[in-house]
Amino acid sequence: MNDLVIMHDEQAVTTSLKVAESFSKAHRDVMKAIRNLTAQNCAVGNMFDKATYVNKQGHEQPMFYMNRDGFTLLAMGFTGDKALQFKLKYIEAFNKMEQMIKEQALPQTPEEKLALTMQVTGRLDKRVTKVENTLHDMQEKAEVDESQRYQLLQARKHRVIEACGGVDSNYYRDKKAKKAFSEFGRDFKKAFDIPRYDCLKAKLFDEAIEFTKNWYPSFVLQREIQNVNAQTRLPID
């Protein structure tokens, strides 16, 4: 009957084996009662932790760890004077174990308090650094969003039409601007080493807008535009 309550994963617990022994019940019946409890309410599952033990025959068998709440819920169904005495012993054992864990967790001397503070600060620093690195990676890899893509397309349209001589120019009115759009697209993708506009990294958006504003057609295309725009358009009756 020793060690009614033990420490497991830094909390006070007991086991289905110890409960079965203490209350003179078959372990299979205690296991069945626990499974019924966990099946009735998913929240109860947090009170019990599945585990295994090796029996006298050397075979691995299932059992459960349970915290104070799990034991209390399970033991509600145990009645009688003897059962009451064991419940009280368990409550006392839980209290003692939880107090021991609390005392072990709390720093006692100034040196221990300082060491704990440094340890907690170190953990926080690591978490902050990890979050910052994650955000940095996201920013580095993020591509332009829908609004930015629209702005880029509008800037491209404005610049290409301007390079053609405007919407009233011969080159644009003769529907030759497609050639200028194609050339801009090739230059843009080459400049930013991307296969499509929507692959542009968001961090390069401002640079892409600046590129678009300052883009000029190739010398050959500029001569072509100038020649077409210099032609006199005959009036159509």
TrEMBL record:
Pfam families attached to this UniProt entry: ORF6C, Phage_pRha
Membrane-spanning segments: none
InterPro entries: ORF6C_dom, Phage_regulatory_Rha
Domain ORF6C span(s) in chain numbering: 114-225
Protein name: Phage anti-repressor protein
Organism: Lactobacillus amylovorus (strain GRL 1112)
Upper lineage: Bacteria, Bacillati, Bacillota, Bacilli, Lactobacillales
